[in-house]
Automatic annotation (TrEMBL):
PROSITE patterns: TAT (PS51318)
Protein name: PhoX family phosphatase
InterPro entries xref list: PhoX (IPR008557), TAT_signal (IPR006311)
Organism listed in the record: Chromatocurvus halotolerans
Length: 574
């Protein structure tokens, strides 16, 4: 491939992309199909939900259906377990595999058809559409389309009431135990994700605070709860009204709130294995994770905490990842967690968040002075990062790793910023930007501003609010957006050629529908098929769009996966 010439498709024009918000628009060189919308039955005989506004699944039925709020995902080619890799090398099928999809959220209005739950059954339905789906999918015979393999033994739903386990330094901490003695269950607000080199999936828990609440108007946050954004009303889900686990005032479940906000590992090829919350990666509003092998066979994991003025993080394993896997351990349980400080001169520091870090920070205090042990530090990662003076960013969403190991960080926007800093140069930052970092070693990096979205205002390439990010091995960078787009456009998928000289130019590949955002990115190993998600189309209103049902059908719009392919069978993004 020619550097600087990686993206040659005909972009969707502003005129075309803004012409009808009820349906998506795609480059003339491409076509798409939809796959596994919310409510798709994973086993035969299970009831499905097709968007009939007069009928909704029961809570029990929802556990056998694809969830809502499709977000981060990855495609695992069949026969791609780590044990298969040891025996045969990875079998990189591009015609069958497991698509693992996050279900970030669905509002009560969308899921229940009403603002608040009236019963525990309502709460359970809401909880069961959250989580993760593992879906066995394949190319349909004699067609370019993909289909779900109903009844595959790998098909699986993980939701808010699925048993999980904890591992890493905080696993045994009293901060993760309740007086009630209830076992750890569930994952929630599964936003972005990341694949591991050993063939598993990491799902990231983002706005977990919003599911907790309290009926006691006098209940007050402590300072840590303030920092994590808990409140008596939460985000209006009302789970706490019928499920004591999510009641902040219930002393028997006082530490349930600490059980969310983690990176959670799922082995898609082992349907019986419990998801594992990896505490060494810290507890914050985890957007997504990008993992790569670095020098010496260790792994580095790059992670954003998506909140205005929150931080960019990195984790590194202490040993080569293969050592852990061979011993039946995890590279994600034994490592160092860092937070980023960006200097104005284009350098930066990864500051280690450890009670053993001897350096004094604010008020001359070390992290060891601030936290009783590493478990406590990890449960309150945000407080540790505050203490060491990390750089407050404009909402770090996805990070992704480019072909040369550089890391792109999508900073979606920050309307609250009044003081610019070097790495966040706009105040307020309404359109967002992308930063590129290159690690010099474990503790130091270089950085540069890769893309300032406001530069595209008034051009054919206009795009704002970068969120989902994925870079391929040739130098393309795919960005999905989340935020009202200018010029009558809806949220979109754009592609950069990072090898092109001069200012990066995003090319518009796909435009979604009214009310949606474009989330996630996955590809088949041959790059002929890409998977993205259309999340909360129409914000659930059939008056806005019926997607993916035919326009005019009156159906409730449903979150779904969209499979993209070039008409000529070429590589997606080219
Ligand atoms: Fe779930 Fe920050 O996006
Ligand atoms: Ca979202
Ligand atoms: Ca996001
Ligand atoms: Ca977002």
């Amino acid at each position: 491939v020619d550097a600087g010439n990686l993206v040659t498709f005909t972009p969707v024009s502003v005129e075309q992309g803004s012409s009808n918000a009820r349906i998506p628009h795609i480059s003339n060189d491409y076509e798409y199909q939809t796959l596994i919308p919310w409510g798709t039955p994973l086993v035969s005989g299970a009831t499905g939900y097709d968007g009939d506004p007069d009928s909704r699944p029961t809570a029990d039925e929802a556990t056998r259906q694809v969830g809502i709020g499709h977000d981060g995902m990855w495609f695992y080619p069949e026969n791609n377990r780590y044990s298969d890799f040891v025996a045969n090398g990875y079998q990189l099928s591009s015609t069958r595999g497991l698509l693992v999809v996050n279900h970030e959220y669905g509002t009560n209005g969308h899921v229940l058809g009403k603002a608040m739950p009236d019963s525990l059954e309502d709460v359970r339905l809401s909880q069961h559409v959250h989580g993760v789906t593992v879906a066995d999918i394949r190319k349909a015979r004699g067609s370019d389309d993909w289909e779900l393999v109903t009844d595959s033994r790998f098909n699986r739903r993980i939701h808010v009431n699925t048993e999980v386990t904890f591992s890493g330094p905080a696993a045994g901490s009293p901060l993760l135990q309740n007086l009630a003695g209830n076992p750890p269950m569930g994952t929630a607000n599964n936003c972005g994700s990341g694949p591991t080199p050993w063939g598993t999936y990491i799902t990231c828990e983002e706005n977990f605070n919003g599911y907790f609440g309290s009926n006691e108007p006098d209940r007050q946050n402590d300072s840590a709860q303030d920092r994590y954004g808990f409140s008596n009303n939460g985000f209006g889900y009302g789970w706490h009204l019928f499920d004591e686990r999510f009641d902040l005032a219930n002393e028997d479940y006082a530490n349930e709130q600490h059980r969310f906000g983690w990176c959670v590992e799922i082995d898609p090829f082992n349907p019986d294995a419990k998801p594992v919350k990896r505490t060494a990666l810290g507890r914050f509003k985890h957007e997504a994770v990008a993992i790569k092998e670095i020098k010496g066979g260790h792994i580095a994991a790059y992670m954003g905490d998506d909140q205005v003025f929150d931080y960019c993080y990195k984790y590194e394993s202490r040993q080569p990842w293969r050592n852990y896997i061979r011993r039946g351990e995890s590279p994600l349980d034994d490592g160092r967690l860092y937070v980023a400080r960006f200097n104005a001169d284009g350098t930066g520091e990864w500051i280690e968040l450890s009670v053993d870090n001897p350096k004094p920070f604010k008020d001359g205090k070390t992290l060891g002075d601030m936290f009783a042990d590493q478990a406590e530090l990890l449960v309150f990662t945000r407080l540790a990062a505050d203490h060491v003076g990390a750089t407050p960013m404009d909402r770090p969403e996805w990070a992704t790793i480019g072909k040369d190991g550089e890391v792109y960080w999508a900073l979606t926007n920050n309307g609250a910023r009044t003081e610019p800093n070097a790495a966040n140069p706009e105040a307020p930052n309404t359109d967002g930007h992308i930063i590129k970092t290159v690690d010099r070693n474990s503790n130091r990096f270089n950085w540069e501003l890769f893309f300032l979205a406001s530069d595209t205002r008034g051009t054919e390439n206009v795009v704002t609010d970068p969120d989902a990010a994925w870079a391929d091995d040739e130098g393309r960078l795919f960005i999905g957006t989340d935020g009202g787009q200018p010029d009558g456009l809806q949220d979109q998928l754009v592609v950069f050629d990072t090898t092109a000289p001069g200012k990066p130019e995003p090319k518009r590949l796909f435009v979604g529908v009214s009310g949606d955002e474009i989330t996630g990115y996955a590809t088949t190993p041959d790059y002929r098929y890409a998977f993205i998600n259309v999340q909360h189309p129409g914000n659930g209103s059939p008056a806005a769009t019926n997607f993916p049902a035919p326009d005019g059908s009156g159906r409730v719009p449903r979150d779904c996966t969209v499979v993209l392919r070039r008409k000529d069978g070429g590589r997606v993004g080219s």
